[in-house]
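Today's session is about reading a structure prediction critically. Students often jump straight to the picture, but the first step is always the sequence itself: look for stretches that repeat, for charged clusters, for runs of hydrophobic residues. Only then move on to the predicted structure, which in these notes is written as discrete structure tokens rather than atom positions. Here is the chain we will use throughout the hour.
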Amino acid sequence: MGMEASGSAIVFLLLLFIHVAHSFYLPGVAPQDFEKGIIIQMWCLLLDAVLQGDELKVKVNKLTSIKTQLPYSYYSLPFCQPKKIVDSTENLGEVLRGDRIENAPYSFKMREAQMCNVLCRITLDAKTAKAFKEKIDDEYRVNMILDNLPLVVPIERGDPGSPAVVYQLGYHVGLKGQYEGSKEQKFFMHNHLAFTVRYHRDVQTDSARIVGFEVKPYSIKHEYDGKWSEKTRLTTCDPHTKRLVVSSSTPQEVEPKKEIIFTYDVDFQAMKWASRWDAYLLMNDNQIHWFSIVNSLMIVLFLSGMVAMIMLRTLYRDISRYNELETQEEAQEETGWKLVHGDVFRIPTNSDLLCVYVGTGVQCLGMVFVTMIFAMLGFLSPSNRGGLMTAMLLLWVFMGLFAGYASSRLYKMFKGTEWKKIAFRTAFLFPAVVSSIFFVLNALIWGQKSSGAVPFGTMFALIFLWFGISVPLVFVGAYLGFKKPAVDDPVKTNKIPRQIPEQAWYMNPVFSILIGGILPFGAVFIELFFILTSIWLNQFYYIFGFLFLVFVILIVTCAEITVVLCYFQLCSEDYLWWWRSYLTSGSSALYLFLYATFYFFTKLQITKLVSAMLYFGYMLIASYAFFVLTGTIGFYACLWFTRLIYSSVKID
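Below is the predicted structure for this chain, in token form.
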């Protein structure tokens, strides 16, 4: 009976867990329920529902432009303002992205359509007109948020085989154009917004959830009779006469002393709800994306399989032949990798620096791996703004433990004794280089008065994460690693270094290192295109499952190409493999930066010097991180390979 009761309890708990998991949302990103009529008190408490008639909280976010890459606060332009501007609480990632989320003057009521609501009336002076013109010329977009959903502009497409409607984040502040018969360039303001709030209604409870937030912007020169007052009716937009704004036939020009009246409509449309984010994440031609990635992966997998098969057969033959040699004379006549057994584990030059870079690479590898796991589980979806960057920063900090451990273990293998020195270098070298570039870029952003500049409070938080958490963890890891017994070499090292024979031209270090980086880069360059597009063209990136698969292929490719080139190097009796193994796979970072340069000149429309410096500065940081990541993978693969083959042959 006791067993049956406990079994029933377990089944009940599993069913309860399944029910809870089915309705799981991350804190702060769950959609709210909005109801029509009276809401039961218990339902309200459970679902955080809001009565119909309560205001839907529309929030404004930063102004963004793919031409300048410099975000600005919404209220940096003289838009209509609420009585009191209230900043929303933002996480670390949002602040670093330049998000500035504030309340908006728009008043929405759930499932209550509104037409021609007047927001405010302003008169431009020379300064405000110039500010609007600059933002329109740089193609800035206004971003808004409703119930954690970003505002999008639907754009109809007539291309066969592609989605009928695609969505662009945010609407343009205005547009440029000419009057008919004139060649003079004019600036026009989008001063009328036709909002559409899409919702899904529950038939049983009559509650509703917001599943879409769209807008169609118009530029219209509003007119009215008599003097302006709060009760003035517009003749260009009046629901009483059924005159609505449906086009920009009489646009609102941006010039000093011009009067601009801001208005908006709100419409509510019911729709079936598959996922709140379906429309947002189907913005591109996914067939091209998927087929390109699959094609790339298949090619890389085929090449990797061929390389692995050749290596296994060749090595097996070498080891069998070496072990069958009966006399020392026969052994002396042999050539190949066995002859350098007395030098292959000789401590390399600048061994301390190699230890530091290997430890840093382990830190990067751990951060990327865990971040991708969380992203695949849905914790870092686009609905969780800033979550990806926050997670990466925190994981980088806590992975300092493994960085210190890896660097001190290698340091002890190189017969090092001052573990504190190596821990200090590991804790400061990579972060110091990245921080230096970051501070310079932040100063440039600050000089442009952009909201993308990191505030002093956030800067202090970053410094605390580095010095207060990361550095101590590196020292703890280094201490634990140094306490472990040193790794013994499988063969003894001769006291006198062996002379390296003259090498063939294709075994030149520079040539072989540059060749070695091509295959790892080939594994990721198609996915890299989509990542760069999401970052610099303000689009969502969400296919983390495929990205993880590409990452695994990258690891395999880095390991195999480094092992192959290391084998050829040892066969030509060149035993200086330590640094070369790191640089061989690490050279893929050079191709990454070259591709980023190609992408800048072919895909982006950046013209300002500061914006170009920001792009290349951030891509330099990304390439540097990619270098230590791929270099460490290649190094450990080569270390494992050399230890394996030299422990497999008989050495007299």
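Discussion point for the tutorial: The longest strand covers residues 207-218.
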